[in-house]
Design a protein that fits this description.
about 15% helix; 5-stranded mixed β-sheet; 4 helices; about 40% strand; alpha+beta; about 180 residues; OB fold (Dihydrolipoamide Acetyltransferase, E2P)
């Protein structure tokens, strides 16, 4: 019979690795580097009517139209003026029909960290009414806490599916890229 510590260890091992660290407000978040396709400066974002408030719109990424989400809005943070550090992180998100590229507006990118299993703790228990399935854990690095995100779960399956229905947004066949 496995102990609780033994059943937690495989999850922590899956969480360790290289993370791109970015800021939203005064907090630092990390997303697995393997999910990141590129980091780009802000560009013109075309609004799409009748999309959720956190969807900024779409951009043209080398001939492919991809949705852009404002993570401040998605996480319920106050809006802030864009600065020279504000950027779009293009990530590949899994969905049932296949991977989809999405952009995420963040306040700034700071570094890439190699986070070890021993530096990651599970999300604290805030009570049964508050579950955050997109938080993989909390990393304690350089005296600070970084919130590690499972970017595939930041948007619910329903949200990703509805964004993929936007014109010209097709899943990437066989894990390919969105470049032409």
């Amino acid at each position: 019979m496995a102990t609780a510590a033994q059943s937690i260890k495989p999850l922590a091992t899956q969480r360790q690795g290289k993370y791109l660290v970015f800021q939203l407000a005064r907090e630092e978040f990390g997303v697995q580097v393997l999910k990141v396709r590129e980091i780009m400066g802000l560009q013109e974002i075309t609004s799409v009517p009748q999309t959720p408030d956190f969807v900024k719109g779409v951009i043209n990424l080398r001939g492919k139209v991809i949705p852009v989400v404002d993570l401040r809005r998605k996480f319920g943070l106050d809006d802030a003026e864009y600065t020279q550090r504000t950027c779009i992180i293009v990530v590949q998100v899994k969905q049932v029909a296949g991977p989809v590229l999405m952009g995420a507006v963040v306040d700034g990118v700071s570094e890439v960290l190699n986070i070890q299993e021993s530096e990651i703790e599970d999300m604290p228990d805030f009570g049964a009414d508050m579950t955050l399935p997109y938080v993989m854990g909390m990393a304690k690095v350089k005296g600070k806490v970084k919130i590690l995100l499972d970017i595939d779960r930041v948007l619910t399956s329903l949200e990703v599916t509805s964004l993929a229905m936007l014109p010209d947004l097709q899943p990437l066949a066989n894990g390919g890229t969105a470049t032409n």
